[in-house]
Each structure stands twice: as structure tokens, then as C-alpha cells.
Amino acid sequence: MTRRSCAIHAVGVTCALLLVVGIGLVVAQVFRTLMHNRLKKEIVLVEGSRVFESWKTPPPPVYMEFFFFNVTNVNEFLEGAKPEVQQVGPYTYREYRYKDNVSMLENDLKVSAYNTKSFVFLRERSVGDPAVDSITTVNIPAWAVMNKVKGSFFRSSMVSIWMNSLKSGLFTTRTVDELLWGYEDPLLARISATNAEVEKVFGLMYKKNGSNDGEFIYHTGKQNYMDYGRVETWKGQSQLTFWTSNQSNSINGSDGSAFHPLLNKDERIYIFTPDLCRSIYMEFEKDVEVKGIPAYRFTPPRSVLASKEENPANEGFCVSPQECLGTGLLKVSPCRKGAPVVASFPHFHLADPKYVAAIGGMSPQRQHHQTFLDLNPTTGVIVRANKRAQVNVLLSRIPGFPKTRGMNETVFPVMFLNESVVIDDASAARVQKLLLIVTLVSNFPLVIVGLGAILLGVFIILLVRARKQKTSTEDDTSYSPVSDKEKEDPQNGTYIGLTPKADPQD
Ligand SMILES: *[C@@H]1O[C@H](CO)[C@@H](O)[C@H](O)[C@H]1NC(C)=O
Ligand SMILES: *[C@@H]1O[C@H](CO)[C@@H](O)[C@H](O)[C@H]1NC(C)=O
Ligand SMILES: *[C@@H]1O[C@H](CO)[C@@H](O)[C@H](O)[C@H]1NC(C)=O
Ligand SMILES: *[C@@H]1O[C@H](CO)[C@@H](O)[C@H](O)[C@H]1NC(C)=O
Ligand SMILES: *[C@@H]1O[C@H](CO)[C@@H](O)[C@H](O)[C@H]1NC(C)=O
């Protein structure tokens, strides 16, 4: 009789203990906090950390697709008709990225590196041979030169004469290879004969193969996980000098290759892109799933490229009041040696409809032309990303060049790119394993509560039986095996309770 009541008491006390501790842990989220602190500590750009090697040499394959706009009515356009373009592409390249000359600074608080990229053509993923396919498009070097000499009667006349004698028109026909990787332009060659600073060769991706875009210094995230991968300086500068306000010139966020763990749906993700010569931001759009990994989709909202009327914060991107363009465009001439180059999303996605209407052949579609980043919110890992951007040239009437006389200001599309990446299977498996551990450990208190609940059931059954026995005064020895079992159970419970403490070390 005393042995049994002792067992019943033990079960009751253990059950109460488990329930109290379990519910306490659930409410205080001790294990979740523990796990999150562990993630913050492990996701840092430090030698030997979980993420360092894949940051230096990202394993997922990156593909770069180029699409060109082939102009089909050059002569009519020059006589005042609406331009018609035909999209030609993709010309696809496998992009290889790695970080060069990585060195730790300031006791592992910062790291410096060069981002090297190289491109290898993939014929089977392309529409044609870039060495053969020819595209008619804006003669960008000529427009750059005309803009440069604008305002000087003498220099304009000179360039005008040269352009006539070299048969260098407002439009040109070149192969895809030439447009991307460079060709010697006769007008530039003529100018470089007298001005050594001018490069003879022009190409949209000229000198971009196997090269880097300058030294970056990043925060490693050791001090604060929110700083993980954040750019501190680029080419030794913590501010840009292209734009006219401090806000526009600031270098914000990461370079797009690393994002801090424990992402929030409400936060703005900042990315500094040297291609655009500015920082942009992205906002949460929706929940997605890639290879079984949950992710938040972040995408740049319209306000990023909105006109200064729509978003006054963008005023700093107008280099002069006359050069302010409408929503959806960014004039990047300050960082293109003054060439009238305008960046936008492909097909003027998110731009003022007047730019779409001005060009025959544009059809913006969110699904095909938006830029987005799918990030796993727990780890900050990129599970899928698409960067899409279009290169345009601003055509306008330029005094001293009679051929441009009939021309209205037109933002003329030349090419757009689609750079995409999806997490590789091996990395996906690693992330899934990590997420599983995080979930299991975070929810461990629920296991304790569950055990407590089971014991509560056992406790009630024992109590009911004990009461019945008291009334029927039966022999108690037949029940001893049962009470023995119950005695072991609470021990089992605490034993199981101890094991997962070793788990987080995995
Ligand atoms: C571009 O258009 C021209 C004529 O307008 C055509 O001859 C040429 O084949 C086109 N290029 C491509 C790659 O389709
Ligand atoms: C140029 O703009 C004027 C006034 O906005 C318009 O009347 C004319 O049709 C335009 N010309 C072309 C070629 O678009
Ligand atoms: C990396 O360091 C080596 C040796 O110090 C140097 O020759 C090379 O130019 C550096 N690479 C870059 C991209 O700066
Ligand atoms: C880029 O360089 C690599 C080797 O460094 C070469 O294999 C590849 O063909 C080059 N790509 C282009 C587009 O020239
Ligand atoms: C960009 O690339 C992705 C992945 O390769 C592809 O799914 C998508 O259709 C491409 N977008 C366009 C506009 O071609």
C-alpha cells in the first residue's frame, strides 16, 4: 500500500514538474532564443565558419542571359516614325564567381575581397551564334561623343565632319559578340589619336570577363549579426561621389551575395550594385518555397526608381534638374563617363507607361521582367534570385548635329540581361538539415509538455484505480509489476529530457 502510493506521488510530482518546466520553456522561448543566438554566432564571414567557403566560392550555378532589341525601321525612325524593335535572345553565359584576395581585417570584424566574375558561352541555351548574329541598334559611342561635345560649336562641327567621313551614323549594325565584348569603333579610334584618355574599343561587357569591380570591405557580422555581409567601403570609399545628395551617395546593405539570418517580413533589404552606381532596396512580396526550403520573396518596389515628384528621396539621382527623368528610369551617365546611358527594368517594367508606348515591341510582364530575391528567413541563404536590368540610351536633339534635328527625346532600349541563380542540391540539403535542427530544438519544450501530459493521464488512471481498490479491499501484490513500470517511466522521461542538450552542438 505505501509502495503504491509512493509511486503515485512520484508520478504526480514528475508530471507537475514536466508541465511547469515545459510550459515555462514554451512561453519563455528559451530554446528558440538559444538556437537563434547560435545562428547569429555561426553565420559570420570568418575562417572556418559554416558559410565562409560558400561565400568565397558560391557553389550554385549562375546563368547570365542577354537579350537585344533589334531595330527594324531605322530610316523611318530618323524621319519621325515610332521606332519598332524585336527582342533577340537569349545569349546565355555560365557565370563563374569567386572572391579574390580575401583578407581578414581588424581582428575578424571586417574582411576585404575582390569579386571576380568570368563568363563562358553556352550554345545549347542560346538562340544563335553571337559571332554571327547581327543586331541593329543605337550607335552608343557616337551618342556618347555627341553628348560630350554638345555646347562647343567648334568641337561639334569637327565631330560632325568626322562622323560623315567615317560613315558613323546614329545607328549601327554589329554582331552580338562585338556589342558585348567590344569592338574598335572608328570614331573613338579617331578621337583617341589626339586624346589618349579615350578608349578605342567599346562593348557593353568590355573588360568584364575575368575582372573585378574593385575592392570591397565587408562587415563579417561577428559584432552584430545585422551587419553580416554589409559593405563598409567600395574602392576605399564609404560614400559614392556620383550623385548630388548624401542619401543617394550612401553605400547601403550588402553586395547581394550575403544576407543576415533571422529576416523579418517588415524590413527593407538594401543592396549596393556597382553596375547601377547606387544602392537599391527590396521589400517583402510573398512567401515562396524552393526545393523544399521556405523563403521570403523580396523585390524592388516602384519607389526605388520613382521620379522625384513621386518620391522626393530620389531627387539626389537627378544630376541636374534638366536631366531628371520620369518614373522607372535611372540615368547612370555620372558613372559612365558622361555617356547618355539610362538603366531600367526590362521592357520598362514599373516605369511610366509613356516610355512603353514610345517604342513598338515593348511588353512589360512582372513575371518575366521583375527582379527578385528569394531568401530563407531563418538563415538568410539565397535560395533563388533573378536580377534583370535593361540598358537604354537617351536620344535627343543635339545642336550641331543636323541628323538629330527631327528627333524627340526618346529612351531607346538596347539590351537587357537576366542573371539567375537557384540553390544547388547539395547546399539545399545542408540548409534543410540545419532548418530541421533549428525546428526540433526550438520545439523541444513541446516534447516536455507532451511527456507531462502523458504522465498526467497515467497519474489520473492510477488515482482512479487506487480509489477503486480502497473500496474493494483487494490484494495489492498483483499490482506491483504495474507500479514498478510506473516508477521507471518518470526516470525515462528525465533521461530523454537530457539528450537534446547535446543536439545543438551538431
Ligand atoms: C535584325 O534585323 C535585321 C533587319 O532588320 C535582320 O537582317 C537581322 O537578321 C536581325 N538580327 C537577328 C539576330 O535576328
Ligand atoms: C514629337 O513631339 C511633338 C510634341 O510633343 C509631337 O507633336 C510629335 O509628333 C513628336 N514627334 C515624334 C517623331 O514623335
Ligand atoms: C591579389 O594579390 C596579388 C598579390 O598580392 C596581386 O598581384 C593581385 O593583383 C591581387 N588581385 C587583385 C584582384 O587585386
Ligand atoms: C572569358 O574568359 C574565359 C577564360 O578566362 C574564357 O574561357 C571565356 O571564353 C571568356 N568568355 C568570353 C565571352 O570571352
Ligand atoms: C530568366 O532566367 C530564368 C532562369 O533561367 C528563366 O526562368 C526566365 O524565363 C528568364 N527570363 C526571361 C525574361 O527570359
Automatic annotation (TrEMBL):
This is CD36 antigen. Keywords: Glycoprotein, Membrane, Transmembrane, Transmembrane helix. PANTHER family: LYSOSOME MEMBRANE PROTEIN 2, SCAVENGER RECEPTOR CLASS B TYPE-1 SR-B1. The keyword Cytoplasm does not apply. GO terms for biological process: protein targeting to lysosome; receptor-mediated endocytosis. The gene is CD36. The keyword tRNA processing does not apply. InterPro entries: CD36_fam, LimpII. It comes from Oplegnathus fasciatus.
